[in-house]
Design brief:
Elements (H helix, E strand, L loop, with lengths): L1 H12 L3 H6 L6 H20 L5 H22 L7 H25 L1 H5 L5 H8 L10 H18 L3 H5 L19
């Protein structure tokens, strides 16, 4: 139940005018779901930091289950052959994106030290699926949004996350976001 509330909060925000216009997002199913997946990954990683808290572990797992249910619900109205296979493919692809983010932030030597290093390339491939120009402002703004919220979530405790006291605002993105990368 709490996982669904967390999801509802960021899903509502990333459909808002402020979010869409600031990040210059086009209406695209894959980009939309990848941004939702990014939010799930950010929350999942922060909840993983509370290793001793069994409620954080439970919320983490419920968040993934709720997100997979969301993907299934999104695909209900889509008329494609082999719908369940398509849903499975999307879930697997979104899981691989989360693994790529894990690799970037926690495994790869250079990027674990300096998170901004090559983050724009990761965002371009994992969030925008190479559907926008490689060096567009969209890529840099989304990269800045990702890194800002990664650090912001590190400042929150479990109580704040559990109570959905997470600010997903894009106002922290600087005007010259390209220069950070």
């Amino acid at each position: 139940m709490q996982a669904q509330q967390l999801m509802a909060r960021f899903l509502l925000y990333h459909d808002s005018y402020e979010f869409v216009e600031t990040l210059q997002l086009q209406d695209d199913f894959h980009i939309h779901n990848s941004i939702a997946n990014l939010h799930v990954w950010l929350l999942y990683q922060r909840l993983r930091d509370f290793g001793e808290n069994k409620f954080a572990f439970q919320l983490r797992e419920e968040l993934i289950v709720a997100f997979n249910k969301f993907i299934t619900a999104e695909m209900e109205d889509v008329q494609v052959l082999r719908k369940f296979k398509k849903i499975e493919d999307i879930e697997n692809y979104l899981f691989s994106i989360r693994r790529n983010l894990d690799f970037h932030f926690y495994i790869n030597g250079q990027t674990t030290i300096e998170h901004c290093y090559k983050l724009d390339a990761l965002v371009w491939t994992c969030i925008f699926h190479e559907k926008v120009p490689r060096y567009s402002d969209q890529v840099y703004k989304m990269s800045q949004y990702l890194i800002n919220h990664y650090y912001y979530l590190q400042t929150l405790d479990f109580y704040q996350i559990e109570r959905c006291m997470v600010d997903w605002s894009v106002t922290s993105i600087p005007f010259n976001s390209r220069q950070a990368f």
